[in-house]
# Entry
Amino acid sequence: MTRFIIQRTAQMVVVLFCISIFTFLIFQVIPNGNPALRLAGQAATPQTIAAIERQWGFDKPIYVQYLDTMQKILTGSVISYSQQINVLDQIKRGLPATISLAGGAAVIWLLFGMALGTLSALRAGRFSDRVLAVLSLVGISMPSFVVATVALYLLAYKVHVFPLSGYVSLAQDPWQWFLHLVLPWFSLSIIYVGFYSRVLRSNMLDTLAEDYVRTATAKGLSRRRVIVGHVLRASLIPLMSLWGLDFAGVIGGGAILVEVVFNLNGVGQYAAESIQTLDVPPILVIVMYGAFLVVVLSAMIDVLYVVLDPRVRLTA
Amino acid sequence: MSAAGADRVPLLAASGLQQRFPVTRSLLFGRPSSYLTAVDDVSLALHEGETLGVVGESGCGKTSLARCLVRLARPTGGTVHYRGQDITHASARQLRPIRAEIQMVFQDPEASLNPRQRVGQIVATGLRLRGVGGSAADREVRNLLAQVGLNPEHVNRFPHEFSGGQRQRIGIARALAVQPKVIVLDEPVSALDVSIQAQVVNLLDDLQQEQGLSYLFVAHDLAVVRHVSDRIAVMYLGQIVELAAADEVYGRPLHPYTAALLAAIPSTDPARRRGRHRPAVAPGEPGNPISPPPGCRFHPRCGRATDVCRTTQPPLVAYSGGHLAACHHPLGVESVGS
Amino acid sequence: MAALLQVTDLEVAFRTHDGPLRAVDGVSFAVDAGQIVAVVGESGSGKSVMAMTLLGLTRGANASFGGTAQFGDVELVGATEDELRAVRGAQIAMIFQNPMTALNPVQRIGRQIVEQIRAHEPVSRAAARARTVELLDRVGIPQAATRVDAFPHELSGGMRQRAMIALALSCQPRLLIADEPTTALDVTIQAQILAEIEELRRETGVGVVFITHDLGIVSQIADQVLVMYGGRVVESAPVDAMFDDPQHPYTWGLLGSAPTAERARRSRLPAIGGSPPSLLRPPAGCHFAPRCPHSFDPCGQTPALRDRLADRPGHLDRCWLEPGQKRRLREVDGQIGLAAAERAG
# Structure
C-alpha cells in the first residue's frame, strides 16, 4: 500500500509537470497572447507596455517565467492578470458551488443511470428497451447548455417553479440551496444518465451470459437475488471508474457551460471568464487542480477495485 | 523412422533450455520480485522423419518449450540448434530462412486464423515466403486444400464458415504452404470432437508419410500422443522426467509420475473396465512453478518418495535401451546404482 | 418402484434467424436413485441443452419445449418458475464444465454455498457456514475452515471443482446433473474427481446424469449409457452391453475414433468421415445416414428407438440394420470401428 501511494504520487508529479508546461506553452504561442498588452489598457504607449513587461517579468526567458509562475502557484501567492487578485482565493470561493453541483449531479446520474440501465438490460430487445435506447441517445446528443437554457426558460422564467440563477450557500439556507441547484443538477446529469445507462446495459448483458450467473440460477435463487446479488454488482464495477473520473472532471471545473448558464460562480465559471481574457495564471491553476483531482480519484478507484474485485491487485 | 540417428546431427535440438517469466514487476521502479520458471533445464532432440511427443498436464511448460523451439519466444537460458546451427539468439532476419522450414500449428484454430482473411489468402501467405505468386499460387493453394481434405472450391470462404476440424485443416494447410521440414503441433486436436480428432490424426500421419515431415507433438492427451509418437518426453513442472520410445514409456514406465498419468487415463479396455479397478491416482496437485518443491518436484505426490527425494533433484539417467528417467527410485529397477 | 427421473419425448427447439433449431429431438430415459446415467455425444449433439432443460436453464423467449420430465411429483418441463426454484439446488443440483467460470469470481466460496443453503432452508448464517466447512472437508478440500473464505481464483482448478461439488451437495439433492465436470481438468485431477462422484453416489444414493464426450470416463463410471447424435438418442444400453456389443454405427465410430492402448500405434484410426449434421436443416430420416458407410434405402426414414435384440430388452437403438449383420459390419482391423466410407467425400 505504501509502495502504491509512493508510486502514484510520483506519477502525479510527472503528470502535473507535463500538463503545466503544455498549458503554459499554449498561451505563449497563441495569437494576441501577450498579457502586457491587455494589462496596459487600450491606449498604452510602448513605454508603459515595456514597463509592465519588466514589472511582471514578461521580458525574461520563457523557462524563467514558467519557474516563477510555478513557484507562485506552489506558495499560493499567484495573482491573476486581469483582476490582479489571488487566484487560489478566487478558486476557494468558487468551490462550494462547484462541489454542490458535482456532488448532487453525480448522485443523480448514477442512480438514474443504474435504474434505466438495469431496466433496459432486463428488457433487452423488447419495446421498452428500444424506447430507452432512443431516449438515452437523445440525452447523449443534447448539449447540456441547450438543456439548461430550455429548462431555465420553461421552469424558471415561464413558470416560476425554480429560481432564475445564482447560488445560495448550504449553510445560509438549505432549501434555497436545493432549489437553486435542481435545474443545474438535472441539466448536467442528462448526458451522463444516457451514457451510463447504455454502458451498464451492455455490462449487464455480458454478465448475464456468464457461467456463474447460470450457477446462481441453478442454485434456486430468486430472479431478483440473481440480478442484484450476482449480475448488478459485477456490472457496476467498471462503471465505478467511469463515475469517479467524471465526478473528478466536474469538481475540477469541467461543468463550464452549466455553471455559466446558471451563473453559479463556481470554478468552471471562473475558468470560462479567465479563458475569455486569456488570463494565464487562473487557467494554469485550474487545469492543474483538475488534473490533480483526476489522478487522485483514479488512485482511489484503483483501491476501490481491489475491494470490489479480489482478483485485482494493486499495481501502479 | 527409428531414433537410430543419435549419431547424426538432429534436426532440432534443445540443450539446457530454460524459460523464465517475471511474475510481478512494477511500472516505475523495482525489479521482478519472483520468476515463474516454465521450462527448466530441458534437453531433447528431434530427428529427421520422427514424431517426438511431449506430454504433461497444464502448467508443465510444454507450450513454453514449443514456443522456444520455434523461436517464437527467446529462451532465457540454454541453446536451440536447428541442423547444427545455433538459433538461440538469432535475429528476426537470421531466422527468416529457418521460419520457412519450421512451422507451428496451434491448439485453437479459431484464434489462430485471421477472421477477415479468406482461406485462400491465409494459405497463400506461406507461398509468398517461397516466392510463389500469381496463378501458380492459386493452383498451389487449391492443391494444398485438397491435400488436407478440404474442398478446393472453398478458397474464397472465411474461417468462420468452416467447422472446428476444418479450421484445423486450414491451419495445417497454412503450415504446409512453406514446405516445412518440421512442424511443431501444440495441442492440435484437443479442441476437436473425438470423431474429428481421428480425422486430423490420420491426416497428419498421411502427410508425414508423403512428405517425410518431422513432428514435435505437444499434448496433454496421452492416448493421442502414444498413437502418433515414435518417442515421448513426459514433462512435470518444467522438467523432463522421462524420455523414451513410445512403447517403452507406455509399456514400462520408469517414473512414478508417468505411471500415475497412464493409470489416470479412463480406458474403454474391457479388462480394465470389468474390475472397475480404481487406478492408483497421484494424490494432491502439481506444485507451483513459481516455487517448485525442492528435490524431486514430484515427491509430494509420490508414494515411493524417501528422504533423498525431498532434498536432491534426481538427474535424467539412461537405463537399458536408452530409456531416460529422472527418478531416485525408478519403477521396476531394483538396484539403484548411479 | 418409480424412477427418480423419468424423461419422456423431451424436445427443445430454439427460434433463430435462420429458422427453428431442433436441439433436442425426442429424448427419453430414466434415472433411478443411486444410478449413474452417462449421456455421451459430441458438440451439437444436444446433450448439454437436454441437461440444462431439466432445470429450466434454457428457458427464454426463443425457446420452445415438448415432452415431459417427471421428477417426483414435479413435472419439470411445464413447471412454473416458482416450482422450479424450489427444486433447483435443493433436489436437483448441477455441476458445470468449467470451474473457472462457474463460480462467482468476486464472492468467497463459502458465501456462495451459504447462499444456496439459506435459499432453501431456514437456518442461521452461522449454522449454514458450519455446514459449508463440513461439506468442503467432505469433498477433500484441505484446511476447509480457512478455504471457506477463499475466493475462487485462489484455488486450483481441481479444488474449484471440488468446491462446486460441495455447493451441489449442500442441500442433499436427490439428483445430480454433471455437465462435463472433468473436461477442463488435468487427467490426474480428473481421476480424483471421478472417484469423488462415485463415492458420493455410493454413500448418499444420489442419482447422477453425467454428460460427457469421453467414452473412457463412461466406461469407468456409468451404469447406463445414452449415446446422442444430432439431438436424438441413437443408442441406450447398460454400460457393458454398450461397449461389448454396440448396436449403432455411430457408437462404433466413436469407439473406433479414440486411440487406445489396444490399437496398434500409428495405425490408421477408423475415423467417422464428414461432420455432424446442422440442427437447422437436419437430414431426413436417420441423422447419421449421410456419414454412415452402411446406410441403405430404409435410412431415409427415421428408425424408432427400440430394443432389437431378443435377449436384451434393455438395449435400445435407432438403426435399420439387421442385428445379425452388425457383428461383421462393425469389425475394423479386429476391433470395433466404423469402416471407411466406400464413396468419396
Q: What stands out?
A: Chain B is about 30% helix and 20% strand. Residues 194-211 of chain B form the longest helix (18 residues). Chain B touches chain C at residues 57-58, 163-166, 193-199, 201-202, 205, 220, 222-224, 226-228, 246-247, 250, 260-261, 263-270, 273, 276, 278-279, 281-283, 285-286 (CB under 8 Å).
